[in-house]
Write a structure and sequence with these properties.
Blueprint: E1 2-4, E2 7-9, H1 18-28, E3 34-38, H2 45-53, E4 58-64, E5 77-80, E6 94-100, H3 109-118, E7 120-131, H4 136-145, H5 167-176, E8 180-187, H6 197-213, H7 220-226, E9 236-242
Length: 243
Amino acid sequence: MKKINNIFIPKWNTERKVNYNIIKWILKNNLKNLDILDVPSWNADLIKTINKIDNSIIKKWTLIDKYVFPNDLESKFLYYNSDFSEIWKFNEKFDLVFSVSWVMEFDNISLFIKNLKKSLKKGWKIIITNDNVISLKDRLLYLFFWKIRRFRLFLEPNQPTFHNIPIQEIYKYLIENGLFVLDVKYCWYKKSDLLFFILFFYLYIPQILYIILKRSYIPLKIRYKLFPISSLFTRHYIMYITK
């Protein structure tokens, strides 16, 4: 586990280094006195860790989670039991909105992103993280077994994490809702992900040519951010978004 200010940053219900990178980004930008929305809360673990590192960062934190209720919240935290892909009935505006490893769970992703935009103050940020499903390992699994690493071949009724959402689909929903991607960071890999390292370069050559030559409304700089070479071997990505 990574440490910041001698405090361990657990992975919780995501990949390693995801929460570490989010907290590191907050500290790097010296953000203070924030009104933050967290969807979902993951039992408020991210909140508690940020408060341990620097309790001046958060002014108020609103949690939205349909399944988990954090039992030991302090007075400056609000909690709503809701699914954020439904019509959002509140008018609060937030400085920072988190959705860590959850976007694939929603039935209506476009409405979910629309709700995020509605809840964000002008000029502030949304952070969405999700599993990378375009890695070389995922591509090989799909080639031989018709599945990718994160999802089973046979989905059972009521099984969670059932939406296979590539990053370009999330980008499409963001643009359609008037949001802008500032940066994309891919993070975390296992040593086993590097077994095919020699193939990364051979595979990336045709991919980068396609990225450059393909006609698209997406600026070339954003295309590089969406599909860097690290997307071939990492397991998760973080999108920094504004409106």
